[in-house]
Write a structure and sequence with these properties.
The chain is mainly alpha-helical and 311 residues long. Helices cover 55% and strands 2% of the residues. A two-stranded antiparallel ribbon has the order 1-2.
């Protein structure tokens, strides 16, 4: 069987490949965490804290459970959307590479929305809430609410004609790639690699609360999108990890729900329906009549404003 894109062979059993890769990814995560922990013991660094790590594992398990439950919804949604694609093509090595690029492009905007829209940040802040930065805590720390958001950013890709299972497989590979940059054990990589791909150096910037680093380096696999859309920052000063409005708790329920409590309080104290809608859709820090500062406003003023801890 040949593809409409030429003589390249069609890739079969995408569903089996997705299941195999998902299972192998778990072993990949575990092996990297053990390797990093061994390097920490050998080097006597202090990148891990017990209760912080246990909290991250708990939130990560909750996220994974919801993500598994959402997989059927995700497939159904992209399959439905694919019926309206103006064209379609079978998955070959070439078309899968194109699909992967499209998924990574969608991830960039998905990730950027989570940071720059208050409703998205209420979920995503969980991932950034630890003051540690490592594979066993930061990389695993996720919100169950993010698992509810994620699929809808990738459904439009079905309108480009990609097979639904190809989109899901590309997204799983992309998510797996994003795991390994959450480490302090790796410094700068070769210049050619740093120029194209997301690296630990790039992602440390993303997780830092240094003023120049805020809302930078959203890329998943490729750092090129950040360079193209003006959100790239080089790692120059030592990163200070965490968020400007900290969640100082190792209780996974507190870490998961504290930001939502803050959002509800802000909604309650914001007058007018229009202002309430803006509060949900504008960047974190926004408030009516200029009473708040967003990241961009802080960077323009050269002043970083930290909020009171949520918990």
């Amino acid at each position: 069987m040949r593809s409409a894109w030429g003589a390249a062979p069609v890739l079969h059993d995408l569903g089996g490949a997705l299941e195999r890769f998902s299972t192998q990814a778990l072993w990949f995560y575990g092996a990297l965490v053990l390797l990093e922990a061994a390097l920490e013991l050998r080097g006597k660094t202090r990148f891990y804290r017990l209760w912080d790590t246990l909290c991250s594992i708990a939130t990560g398990l909750g996220y994974t459970a919801v993500q598994v439950l959402m997989r059927g919804v995700f497939f159904g949604a992209i399959f439905f959307a694919s019926q309206f694609a103006p064209w379609s093509f079978e998955t070959t090595p070439l078309t899968f590479v194109v699909c992967y690029l499209a998924v990574d492009f969608a991830f960039y905007w998905h990730h950027r929305v989570l940071h720059e829209v208050r409703l998205g940040w209420a979920a995503h802040v969980v991932h950034h809430s630890s003051t540690q930065y490592n594979l066993g805590a930061t990389a695993l720390r996720q919100s169950v609410f993010e698992a509810l958001y994620e699929p809808w950013f990738y459904v439009p890709l079905a309108l480009l004609g990609f097979e639904p299972l190809a989109i899901m497989l590309a997204l799983q590979i992309n998510i797996t790639y994003m795991f390994w940059p959450h480490t302090q054990q790796i410094g700068r990589l070769p210049r050619w690699f740093e120029a194209v791909f997301v690296t630990p150096s790039h992602h440390r910037v993303h997780h830092a609360k240094n003023l120049p680093y805020l809302d930078k380096n959203y890329g998943g696999t490729f750092i090129l999108w950040d360079k193209l859309f003006g959100t790239f920052a080089q790692e120059r000063e030592a990163p200070e990890f965490g968020v400007l409005t900290p969640i100082r708790s190792a209780n996974p329920l507190t870490v998961t729900f504290a930001s939502w409590g803050a959002l509800l309080r802000d909604l309650r104290h914001t007058p007018g329906l229009g202002n309430k809608v803006q509060l949900l859709l504008r960047p974190p820090g926004w408030a009516p009549e200029g009473r708040g500062l967003t990241t961009r406003q802080m960077q323009a003023a050269g002043v970083r404003t930290e909020g009171a801890p949520l918990a």
